[in-house]
Amino acid sequence: MHTSVLLKESVDSLHIQNGAKYIDATLGAGGHTEEILRRGGLVLGIEADPKMLEIARKRVGEACPTLFLGNFRDIASIAHEHGFEKVSGVLFDLGISSVHLDSDPRGFSFRNPNASLDMRLNTEAQGVTAADLLNSLDKTQLTILFESKLIAQKVVESRKNKPFESVGDFLSLFGQKWGKIHPATKPFMMLRIAVNTEYENLSSALSQAFELLKKNGKLVVISFHSGEDRIVKSFFKKVEDSGEAKMEDFVRPADEEIIKNPRARSAKMRVLTKLNEK
Ligand SMILES: C[S@@+](CC[C@H](N)C(=O)[O-])C[C@H]1O[C@@H](n2cnc3c(N)ncnc32)[C@H](O)[C@@H]1O
């Protein structure tokens, strides 16, 4: 099961008011939504992966009927469709969940070498798998994707012998784990980011989410690596510089949380308050 990261801190930052509306743009297993509901908020939950939506519905669906399959890059239209156009807060808890990493057959984790190299959050809505990218991008595109000429070269060499199909095929490009972090960790993440167009989705969603906020509404984003945080920070700074919002200092999980849930170690939470409604 997924343990929600920065649960108390993020929901505290939303300043939940009884009967007010909030959007959980990354519903996942429903942990943050459950806490917002417990404190009296109404939630519109958005989740890109049908499997995760099912898990969340089992957990909180009875208390919260407004949980939908969708991509947060469409957050404005989803919110309008369901009467959540003026909200008191929007939460993004980015990336994938522990459910994806621990037990999903779509190849999100390199711990299961026999899994197919798919990585799509929604296999119905998305056509291109991780294996497709490795088998079809040219060397320049692969260099951009992995920020590494060496990995791009290895991919091109390897697919001459055999097309990429499984996690093991991709894993074989990297050496054994010798330090704390496996050398395939970052390339795996970069491949997943490309398959699910994560940076494009986030950039588009943040400005839409900000528009949906009421005066004093909160935009709370938990990111897990510098690529995500750069996008969040630059958007927050842009609206702060324009005088429309106020940004708080970022928050990291306390040591006790990291000891209980080591996956929280890279989390960084940023909070933005909207100053005026247009
Ligand atoms: C870190 S998990 C969220 C966990 C959740 N906050 C909880 O406490 O259970 C992130 C979730 O966002 C979903 N997700 C990722 N990108 C998305 C997108 N563009 N639109 C909607 N959901 C997305 C993933 O499928 C995953 O279930």
Number of strands: 7
The CATH architecture classification of the largest domain is 3-Layer(aba) Sandwich
First-last Cα distance: 41 Å
Order of helices and strands: HEHEHEHEHHHHHHHEHEHE
Strand order of the largest sheet: 3-2-1-4-5-7-6
Mind summarizing the main beta sheet?
A: 7 strands, mixed
Total helical elements:
13
CATH class of the largest domain: Alpha Beta
Mean pLDDT: 95
Share of residues in strands: 5-15%
CATH superfamily assignment of the largest domain?
A: Vaccinia Virus protein VP39
Which secondary structure elements does this structure contain, and how are they paired or packed?
Blueprint: H1 7-13, E1 21-24, H2 31-38, E2 42-47, H3 50-60, E3 67-69, H4 75-81, E4 87-93, H5 98-103, H6 130-136, H7 139-146, H8 149-161, H9 167-171, H10 185-195, H11 198-212, E5 213-223, H12 226-241, E6 245-247, H13 255-260, E7 268-274
Parallel strand pairs: 1-2, 1-4, 2-3, 4-5
Antiparallel strand pairs: 5-7, 6-7
Helix pairs in contact: 1-2, 7-8, 11-12
The structure holds S-adenosylmethionine.
The site of S-adenosylmethionine (SAM) has 22 residues, from helix 2 and strand 2.
Task: Describe the protein's architecture and organization.
- It is built from 13 helices and seven strands.
- Helix 1 packs across helix 2 (31-38), helix 7 (139-146) packs across helix 8 and helix 11 runs parallel beside helix 12.
- The protein has helices at 7-13, 31-38, 50-60, 75-81, 98-103, 130-136, 139-146, 149-161, 167-171, 185-195, 198-212, 226-241, 255-260; strands spanning 21-24, 42-47, 67-69, 87-93, 213-223, 245-247, 268-274.
- It is an alpha/beta fold and 278 residues long.
- It folds into two domains: 7-99 and 199-274, Vaccinia Virus protein VP39 (Rossmann fold); 127-195, no CATH class.
- The chain is globular.
- A seven-stranded mixed β-sheet has the order 3-2-1-4-5-7-6, sandwiched between helices.
- Residues 2, 4, 26, 28-32, 46-49, 52, 71-73, 93, 95-97, 121, 201 line the site of S-adenosylmethionine (SAM).
- S-adenosylmethionine is lined by residues 2, 4, 26, 28-32, 46-49, 52, 71-73, 93, 95-97, 121, 201.
